[in-house]
Automatic annotation (TrEMBL):
Keyword DNA-binding in record: yes
Coiled coil: none
Record InterPro entries: Cro/C1-type_HTH, Lambda_DNA-bd_dom_sf
Stretch forming the signal peptide: none
Domain HTH cro/C1-type: 32-61
SMART domains: HTH_XRE (SM00530)
Keywords: DNA-binding
Protein known as: DNA-binding XRE family transcriptional regulator
Gene3D superfamilies: lambda repressor-like DNA-binding domains (1.10.260.40)
Transport among keywords: no
Record-linked PROSITE patterns: HTH_CROC1 (PS50943)
GO molecular function, one term: DNA binding
Length: 103
């Protein structure tokens, strides 16, 4: 069964490129939201802990838009009791279950 999304992406290379580019943002948004919920925090509580505004946190958790800066990641993760570690490695060696963000 062919999904409408697959048809549209196959027929429009520009749309396919844009959609692919947003994959990273969607994955990050899900990660951020999941971490916050695991920590039992609302966006407002996370804002108070991190020093980021609630609207900034909302943008970080949105599936579209610009990627947040690494400093924002660090503050967000720290407020959730986590930390950011950036380790470069060859993209060919990337395990399928790891989130890889190329900056």
């Amino acid at each position: 069964m062919t999904v409408l999304k697959d048809i549209l992406l196959a027929e429009n290379p520009d749309l396919a490129t844009s959609y692919s580019r947003n994959d990273t943002k969607r994955e990050l948004a899900l990660l951020f939201r999941s971490l916050r919920k695991q920590a039992g925090l609302t966006q407002i509580e996370l804002a108070a802990r991190s020093g980021l505004s609630q609207s900034h946190i909302s943008k970080m958790e949105a599936a579209t838009g610009a990627l947040p800066e690494v400093e924002s990641w660090s503050r967000y993760f720290h407020a959730c009791g986590k930390r950011v570690k950036i380790t470069p490695y060859d993209a060919a060696d990337r395990p399928d279950d790891e989130l890889c963000v190329l900056i």
